[in-house]
Amino acid sequence: MARYRLLTPGPTQVPDEAREGLARAVRHHRSDEFRKLFREIVAGLQYVFQTQHDVVVLCSSGTGAMEAAVANVVPRGGKAIVLESGKFSERWRLIAERFGVEAISYEVPWGETFEPSRVAELLAAHPDAVAVYGTLSESSTGVGHDIEAIGRVVGPSPALLVVDAISGAGAMECRTDAWGIDLLVVGSQKALMGPPGLAFLAVSPAAWRQIESVADRPAYYFDLLAYRQALGAGEAPFTPAISLLTGLAECLRQIRAEGIERRLARSRLLGQATRAAMEALGLRLAARRPADGLTAVFFPEGLDGREFLGRLESRFGVKLAGGQGPWKGKIFRIAHLGLLDELDILAAIAAMELVLFEMGYPVRLGAGVAAASQVIATARGL
Amino acid sequence: MARYRLLTPGPTQVPDEAREGLARAVRHHRSDEFRKLFREIVAGLQYVFQTQHDVVVLCSSGTGAMEAAVANVVPRGGKAIVLESGKFSERWRLIAERFGVEAISYEVPWGETFEPSRVAELLAAHPDAVAVYGTLSESSTGVGHDIEAIGRVVGPSPALLVVDAISGAGAMECRTDAWGIDLLVVGSQKALMGPPGLAFLAVSPAAWRQIESVADRPAYYFDLLAYRQALGAGEAPFTPAISLLTGLAECLRQIRAEGIERRLARSRLLGQATRAAMEALGLRLAARRPADGLTAVFFPEGLDGREFLGRLESRFGVKLAGGQGPWKGKIFRIAHLGLLDELDILAAIAAMELVLFEMGYPVRLGAGVAAASQVIATARGL
Predict the structure, then answer these.
(1) Which CATH number fits domain B5-9+259-379: 3.90.1150.10, 3.40.50.2000, 3.40.50.970, 3.40.630.40?
(2) A150 interfaces chain B, CB cutoff of 8 Å
(3) Is the peptide bond preceding residue B11 cis, with omega within 30 degrees of 0?
(4) The domain B16-257: what is its CATH number?
(5) Which residue of A has its CA nearest to B7?
(6) A chain contacts of residue B19, beta-carbon cutoff 8 Å
(7) Do A23 and B28 touch (CB under 8 A)?
């Protein structure tokens, strides 16, 4: 059996120290000891998200936090602008519709990104829009959207800016406060290196005011005002996922010890190296504006993508992700965030070369690794 | 430092093998390996809940599953009968109201239970009630309600029977199918011995038909139809809490190996022993009809309850739970479910005696342990 190497854009590898935290005997959550841990976690999340805002901790997948960012914010019959560019940004619209919110969709083709000027036009045309729902890293396409630029056009409007940074925060620049993000949604199992099952919401004062104004919120488990009240006491309103939080605290300690800027630089560099490798192998990249935390790549014409991913896993233990929705069977996705480092990525590229070679694709063995190594060497000033 | 001994009615102690499962390296959830684990978990839950119905696995606390059992089931403006007898059954009403459901409340004082004949009267008076929301083990009062008898009166009516068995299932008899329970809500961190963060819903065919009929469900993360669709493929619709599930699978293996009947008998016996001990110490029990998984006890007049619980923890590491809501500062609660066995309970009783003695309460040392031991000896036919 090949040794398992998880390189999907979530879930991702969890550091040993965090796995030890997960295994620790459960302690009761209504205790000073737990409150101390909880406050440390909130402070760690604020550090990673570059925010002074309240950070709410939910026990759910990232989708639960997305729902919270709709159901608490826009009243039934209210209006929101949704920036759609893939499977995950489409989810904003689906959630909005499920909660009776009118979604004004600005849709671009998969792999593309948005024109901030068009967002400005939509805001002018819909001054009653309560919020703009966007995405930092669209992990179905590998696109990293320019949230900073979108923030500049949303800022002067009355609308809130809500950003799905589930797979983005911690992997690419995400200046929550500086960019005017009112609600930031993040998941535990991406760049934060935690196990799946926790989601986070950074909430600005303006967002709190809006939430307070929604009289009839269809939210109980995700009632953000209940979380805010508990947060003041260093607690969660419902029994929190104690083991997951104990593990996450270790992840956040490691991120703080390394420093967020160094981590972001590593993901950025690994992204550049990965893209250079894919191009050297003659593969086509999927994202017009690539995210730092993952790379999406089209399978070459005529290659059986399922077979390619299956062989990577069975021969070398390398687990990559396939495509989703309309890109199922068309792309594969490799993560370069969290624990993953230069050698993990170079090794994965080498495995891809060998499998492509074995499958008869015209590849020059070593070409991808060489291109990626050159990017790394250049970045190191060699 | 005294060794920590967790005896709260959730979270509870997690077996070593499950903690090892929690610490295992994360594997991707879209894989045959994970689907096999997931199917094993669902089968294990069906075994514990004594049901052939679909069992949906949510990543949330038990409250999330309660919300799912309201938001998917009763349309906005619909009606439901709520059986209220404590903090957790009150939550059914609060969730119903939050989702625009008219809650017909049958409320009894804390510590009391319901008359099935009164439930029948309410069903006759409200033939349009979509569901009756009840509770198996009301852990705020230590009452175990007679769901079997309530099931007999709900059965002939058009209403569904929805039961919060978050802390009950696995600790006391819960014959989901035989008793006509249409939606059973259970949490991971009680009698199932798992860490907190997972919740389960057993859904009957009649409940599925009702859910399908609700056109406008204010549920996305908790959209049960999405879970049913994924369940058929051995998956969850959103990234599941992989580590928690890996740990839970170990818990369920242990329960199956021991046999559910033996486990239920153990909780029942430990409950009898605990109650005998409390009465031998002159303490008053809180529940008219006691649950098998926990015992709630009034602090004696004049005793500082906070000090009592604090000394139990600091002197002996024994962590019990206090009261909630109107019973905050009035009762304490001790669990006898999951991993906890005879010696854990006898030791905890001995610790209580010593702390009561130290605080000047007129206790005869050993009296509680003697009474509990006598119950155990009698049960063993000694």
Answers:
(1) 3.90.1150.10
(2) no
(3) yes
(4) 3.40.640.10
(5) A28
(6) 22-25
(7) no
